[in-house]
C-alpha cells in the first residue's frame, strides 16, 4: 500500500508512528510515477493489512493523507487502486 503525503518530513513522521504502533516495517519510498501528480515525490509504503491502523495513526498525529493506493499485478503489470 502506498500512502501519499505532502512532504518527506510528513512521510518520515508517519513511518515512525506506524512502525511504533503496528509493529511491522514501513518505508519512505519514491512515489511511483503512475501515482505522482505533482507535489511530494515520497510516499510511505506499508503492508495492506495496516489500512485501518494507518488511518487512525494519521488522524491521531494530525498527519494529512493525500491519497492511499493498493498495488496489485494484472497480466504482469502493476495496477494501483485508489482506497481513499
Give the SSE layout.
Layout: E1 2-4, H1 8-22, E2 26-30, E3 42-46, H2 51-60, E4 67-74, E5 77-82
Helix pairs in contact: 1-2
Characterization of the model:
There is one protein chain. It is built from two helices and five strands, in the order E-H-E-E-H-E-E. By secondary structure, the protein is an alpha+beta fold. A hairpin with a 2-residue loop joins strand 4 and strand 5 (77-82). Helix 1 packs across helix 2. The termini are close together.
Uncertain spans: none
Strand order of the largest sheet: 2-3-1-4-5
Number of β-strand runs: 5
Shape: globular
What string gives the helices and strands in order? EHEEHEE
Proportion of beta-strand residues: 25-35%
Chain-averaged pLDDT: 90
Share of helix, binned: 25-40%
**Number of helical stretches of at least 4 residues:** 2
Counting helices, strands and paired strands, the structural category is: alpha+beta
Could you tell me the radius of gyration in angstroms? 12 Å
Main beta sheet: 5 strands, antiparallel
Cα distance spanning the termini:
11 Å
Amino acid at each position: 500500500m502506498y500512502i501519499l503525503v505532502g512532504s518527506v518530513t510528513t512521510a518520515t513522521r508517519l513511518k515512525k508512528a506506524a512502525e511504533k504502533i503496528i509493529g511491522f516495517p514501513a518505508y519512505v519510498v519514491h512515489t511511483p510515477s503512475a501515482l505522482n501528480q505533482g507535489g511530494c515525490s515520497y510516499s510511505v509504503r506499508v503492508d495492506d493489512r495496516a489500512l485501518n491502523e494507518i488511518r487512525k495513526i494519521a488522524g491521531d498525529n494530525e498527519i494529512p493523507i493525500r491519497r492511499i493506493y493498493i498495488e496489485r499485478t494484472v497480466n504482469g503489470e502493476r495496477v494501483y487502486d485508489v482506497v481513499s
